[in-house]
Amino acid sequence: MIVAQALLELRMMLRHGEQLLLTVVIPTLLLVLFSAVDVVDVPTGGGERVDFFAPGVLALAVLSTAFTGQAIATGFERRYGVLKRLGASPLPRWGLMTAKTAAVVGVIVLQVVLLSAVALALGWSPRGNPLAVALLLVLGTAAFSGLGLLMAGTLRAEATLAAANLVFLLLMLGGGVIIPLERFPGAVQGVLGALPITALSDGLRAVLQDGAVLPWADVGLLAAWAAVALAAAARWFRWE
């Protein structure tokens, strides 16, 4: 039942034009634009501009799918009573959440493959251990999925739509995805450095650009965010 529901959720996510725009088109356009045009001065470490932007855009892809897309879709499912009906089906509620998470993971895998292919075509030279990259992506997915479900399960659908898009925009600009954290004032860097998007983008950049074995500080921060977000979503998520 969980596998069938996960496949259904995945097909629904891929059929939505606005979802594809958010999860695939926007990250791809940002990757191509900022890698090809010298709009933002970034540290390249002697490599290409894409070496800096590719890890950040991978983090942005996780944010767009696990948080923004899932929050909006789940919020409107809750408003229209879809979750209530599914909750009364033989599929247990924890199974439904598992299926939704599996569908999110499936979309993120497709995003990573697509964005990596585009980045390689632009001259990207990734380094580091793929297992470290996978760990960071899993922890980032868990953290943003928990935050997305928490928002969808506590706010009205319209408020979720507005808040999720606003948060996406703010984190894209202030989470080290496009603009290096060093460009912000010192008083702000400490706050931005504690965000999950910053930990994910910095962690991916440390592995893929600098060749680090495993950025433990970023892993620990993402694990903490994932634990708190998922626990809060399980505690306060309302099905009706």
Quickly list its features.
about 240 residues; mainly alpha; 10 helices
Structural class: mainly alpha
* Relative strand content: under 5%
The overall number of domains is 1
Number of helices: 10
Distance between the termini: 22 Å
Overall helicity: over 70%
Please write the string of helix (H) and strand (E) elements. Answer: HHHHHHHHHH
The poorly predicted ranges are none
| Rounded average pLDDT | 86
Report the major sheet. none
Please tell me how large the radius of gyration is: 18 Å
Number of strands: 0
- So what's the overall shape? globular
List the helices and strands and how they pair.
Elements: H1 2-15, H2 17-36, H3 49-79, H4 82-87, H5 93-121, H6 130-154, H7 157-174, H8 186-193, H9 196-208, H10 216-236
Helix pairs in contact: 1-5, 2-3, 2-5, 3-5, 3-6, 3-7, 3-9, 6-9, 6-10, 9-10
Describe this structure in words.
By secondary structure, this protein is an all-alpha fold. The protein has helices at 2-15, 17-36, 49-79, 82-87, 93-121, 130-154, 157-174, 186-193, 196-208, 216-236. It has one domain. Helix 2 packs antiparallel against helix 3. The longest helix is centred in the first third of the chain and has 31 residues, at 49-79. The chain starts with a helix and ends with a helix. The model has no long low-confidence stretch (mean pLDDT 86).
